[in-house]
Automatic annotation (TrEMBL):
Family: Belongs to the iron/ascorbate-dependent oxidoreductase family.
Domain Fe2OG dioxygenase, chain residue ranges per copy: 207-308
InterPro entries noted in UniProt: DIOX_N (IPR026992), IPNS-like_FE2OG_OXY (IPR044861), IPNS-like_sf (IPR027443), Oxoglu/Fe-dep_dioxygenase_dom (IPR005123), Plant_2OG-oxidoreductases (IPR050295)
The name this protein goes by in its record: Fe2OG dioxygenase domain-containing protein
Cell cycle found in the keyword field: no
Keyword terms: Iron, Metal-binding, Oxidoreductase
Keyword Magnesium: no
Pfam families (alphabetical): 2OG-FeII_Oxy, DIOX_N
Length: 359
């Protein structure tokens, strides 16, 4: 863990830069031309979108509709790694209020937010970079990161005490999203031909991990030169993203193209993370995504990460390993895995690919 104790450079809040009214962004936010939004987006004006799946029939079990829903989830996990879920069972009002409370948090004076300033040891709190590489090109965003589960890591004193409803809303929101996560793990297990509770057990049963990263993407005077969040795949199990309602920004890689997701009201954007890619022996893939910013509006998003228990060995399900399809990964705990991204910062899919055994 040495080298992870403090940031290599003074922390600058991107929100402060944005609010200063500067016309040109500092050099350390300027991406190389090949990573800039416009360079790779040339073919992206066709209106292709990630699948939208109505989950209502996953819950009340009309067998035909249930099967149809499973089939849609299966295709989305195999071909896209991403989908938007509607009728997912989480209260729309709760989603709205939770997003608003975080918007209010980021709109508080800087001094209040600074009380929660984070360090690279745990990343919990108010942060402005991922990774401790000195001189790294940074992303145009601030964030707040917190642990929801396991309870032993949940420390409400590290959650914002203002706005005053924040902690309570978070507890409720997390509980509902965790429930949804459990339901989707069942669906994925069934779709993979595994026992219904296989993935849940592989995640540690009741002892899963869960954390929340609230992203704040301030408006940017030169959005074509930078990214709100660099290309990455999510290291954990699966992610439930609550995007902002009226400003897009998330882009998903489909082959060589970056597709901009048009968020559907009250939907979650769900994606497969690296650990499910490993457990499914790459039948499901965690797909690269990134965030672009704009000059007109700040954007808030809540990324809820549903993760395996951090000290379990994660490996491909035996049932998905055969002579024709050998295990593509060697076992590793999620703790070990996560250390890499926390050191290097977001770097596409380099990590899950580097894990692959030589076959
Ligand atoms: C993330 C992420 C996307 C977004 O936090 O991992 O991919 O739209 N966020 O904020
Ligand atoms: Ni992500």
């Amino acid at each position: 863990m040495s080298g992870l104790k403090s940031w290599p450079e003074p922390v600058v809040r991107v929100q402060s830069l944005s609010e200063s009214g500067m016309r040109a962004i500092p050099k350390r936010y300027v991406k190389p031309p090949s990573d800039r939004p416009a360079e790779t987006e040339t073919e992206n004006h066709q209106h292709v979108d990630i699948p939208v799946i109505d989950l209502q029939h996953l819950f009340n079990k009309d067998p035909t509709l249930h099967e149809q829903t499973l089939a849609l989830i299966s295709t989305a996990c195999k071909d896209w790694g991403f989908f938007q879920a509607v009728n997912h069972g989480v209260s729309h009002d709760l989603m709205e209020r939770t997003r608003q409370v975080w918007r209010d948090f980021f709109n508080m004076p800087l001094e209040l937010k600074q009380q929660y300033a984070n360090t690279p040891t745990t990343y919990e709190g108010y942060g402005s970079r991922l990774g401790v590489q000195k001189g790294a090109i940074l992303d145009w965003s601030d964030y707040f990161f917190l642990h929801y589960l396991p309870l032993s890591l949940r420390n409400q004193s590290k959650w914002p005490s203002h706005p005053s409803s924040c902690r309570e809303l978070l507890s409720e929101y997390g509980a509902e999203v965790v429930k949804l996560g459990g339901r989707l793990l069942k669906a994925m297990s069934t779709n993979l031909g595994l026992k219904e509770d296989y993935l849940q057990n592989a995640f540690g049963g009741e002892d899963i991990g869960a954390c929340l990263r609230v992203n704040f993407y301030p408006k940017c005077p030169q959005p074509d030169l930078t990214l709100g969040l660099s290309s990455h795949s999510d290291p954990g199990g699966m992610t439930f993203l609550l995007p902002d309602h009226d400003v897009a920004g998330l882009q998903v890689r489909k082959n060589a193209n970056w597709l901009t997701v048009n968020p559907i009201p009250n939907a979650f954007i769900v994606n497969v993370g690296d650990q499910i890619q490993v457990m499914s022996n790459m039948i499901y893939k965690s797909v690269e995504h990134r965030v672009v910013v704009n000059s007109g509006k700040d954007r808030v998003s809540l990324a809820f990460f549903y993760n395996p228990k951090s000290d379990l060995l994660i490996e491909p399900a035996k049932e998905l390993v055969s002579e024709e399809r050998p295990a593509l990964y060697t076992p590793m705990t999620f703790d070990e895995y996560r250390l890499y991204i926390r050191t290097k910062g977001p770097c596409g899919k380099a990590q899950v690919q580097s894990l692959g055994s030589s076959t």
